[in-house]
């Protein structure tokens, strides 16, 4: 990810008023938290109680392990709705009222919006940089803006190709190494019977397409001096859209439902869906396929013939210290423990089912073992360890990321309802996103 300074972020708008509009509420806490002197750690023996708002299940069980070893710094986990399902609005409202938790689960793609809303503590002021070598380089770059660190990586989602070997063997196919080979396998699977597909393409969720474009080398948002550049129609994005336009037009993908939906589980269990290009965290979902144990394997993600990267990310969260925390150093220490200490990582996997560990040297004990469900394959070490290192580090999220995704998937739906091409959908979305930047008082220009 490109390094962007917080000064640049703030200079790209019209100050606090733009940040307030962007956050959908008044200026959080009315405090310029990173302009104030750093808050000193608690004195020896002083009792500290932290709160952590997250949508992870059973997070308190992880906190309890920390609490047992750190009697002076106790952490309470409070469950909230997923970010876009209401969690972020709750955080913004609490910040605006001068309160909120010490720690919030914030997706990596959401950090720029929180930054513009002055909602996050720069953990670089509390020594976060000394922990950088504990984290995967690509993941650490997602939380670093200039010299500031605005979250501790919590998990991510490097992608791979999950498939049913029996169904590919039936058409004499191996897992595709390239997207062109993927098209060939998809065509062969379609010939095996009505309703049989290699994969789905979800027009109602733009996140997978964004990941595919990122793998191809797309860079939708960049900074040039004091302005944002929006470029959703670069060569990599257009090529990705043309590819899936063809796949849909030739009826090579299921568009009636998305991966991990009830329809998908039924089709996968019946052998009508042969594979899914999914994130590391998809393994737990795939294990919900009836009768699937021992009938699935994992291969590296197929790559673009014109270049790009070996894999890409789908999803990823941070444990971010929110602006009104009175104990940022203690909050950071807990977050670092939770995401890099083997005991913390193992607990996060066991109780919370987190995605890929951001730690550079430990993926979790449970993920070092062969999986009986996935045909005895040690797929985490074989596939996802290298995939996590084959990422597009030039990708940058923007403060209007969610708006861009919502607009894109609205336009994608018109592929099925009105014949709009995915290429046209990208062009229309870019125009709408540029207008949205301007309407928020942000300085922006279109690259095309």
Automatic annotation (TrEMBL):
Keyword set includes Nuclease: no
UniProt keywords, alphabetically: Cell membrane, Lipoprotein, Membrane, Palmitate, Signal, Sugar transport, Transport
Signal peptide: 1-23
Origin: domain of life: Bacteria
Protein name in the entry: Multiple sugar transport system substrate-binding protein
């Amino acid at each position: 990810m490109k390094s962007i300074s917080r000064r640049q972020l703030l200079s790209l708008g019209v100050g606090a008023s733009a940040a307030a509009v962007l956050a959908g509420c008044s200026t959080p806490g009315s405090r310029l938290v990173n302009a104030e002197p750093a808050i000193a750690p608690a004195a020896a023996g002083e009792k500290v109680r932290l709160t952590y708002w997250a949508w992870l299940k059973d997070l308190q069980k992880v906190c309890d392990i920390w609490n047992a070893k750190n009697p002076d710094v106790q952490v309470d986990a409070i469950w909230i709705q997923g970010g876009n399902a209401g969690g972020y609005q709750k955080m913004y409202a609490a910040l605006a009222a001068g309160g909120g938790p010490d720690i919030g689960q914030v997706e990596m793609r959401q950090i720029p919006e929180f930054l513009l809303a002055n909602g996050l503590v720069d953990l670089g002021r509390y020594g976060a940089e000394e922990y950088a070598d504990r984290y995967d380089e690509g993941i650490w770059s997602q939380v670093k803006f200039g010299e500031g660190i605005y979250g501790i990586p919590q998990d991510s989602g490097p992608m791979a190709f999950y498939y049913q070997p029996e169904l590919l063997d039936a058409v004499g196919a191996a897992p595709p190494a390239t997207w062109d080979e993927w098209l060939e396998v998809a065509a062969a699977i379609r010939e095996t019977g009505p309703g049989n597909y290699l994969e789905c393409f979800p027009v109602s969720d733009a996140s997978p397409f964004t990941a595919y474009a990122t793998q191809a080398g797309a860079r939708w948002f960049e900074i040039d001096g004091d302005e944002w550049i929006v470029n959703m129609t670069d060569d990599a994005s257009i090529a990705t859209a043309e590819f899936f336009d063809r796949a849909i037009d030739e009826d090579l993908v299921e568009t009636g439902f998305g991966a991990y939906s009830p329809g998908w589980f039924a089709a996968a269990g019946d052998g009508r869906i042969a594979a899914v290009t999914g994130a590391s965290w998809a393994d737990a979902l795939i294990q919900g396929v009836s009768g699937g144990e021992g009938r699935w394997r994992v291969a590296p993600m197929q790559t673009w013939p014109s270049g790009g990267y070996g894999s890409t990310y789908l999803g990823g969260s941070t444990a971010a210290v929110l602006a009104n925390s009175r104990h940022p150093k203690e909050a950071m220490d807990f977050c670092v423990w939770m995401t890099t200490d083997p005991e913390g990582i193992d607990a996060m996997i066991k109780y919370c089912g987190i995605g890929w560990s951001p730690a550079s040297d430990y993926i979790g004990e449970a993920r070092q073992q062969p999986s009986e469900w996935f045909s005895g394959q040690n797929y985490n070490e074989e596939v996802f360890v290298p995939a996590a290192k084959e990422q597009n580090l030039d990708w940058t999220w923007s403060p209007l990321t969610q708006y861009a995704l919502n607009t894109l998937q609205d336009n994608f739906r018109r592929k099925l309802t009105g014949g709009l091409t995915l290429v046209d959908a990208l062009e229309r979305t870019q125009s709408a996103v540029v207008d949205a930047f301007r309407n928020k008082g942000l300085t922006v220009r279109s690259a095309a």
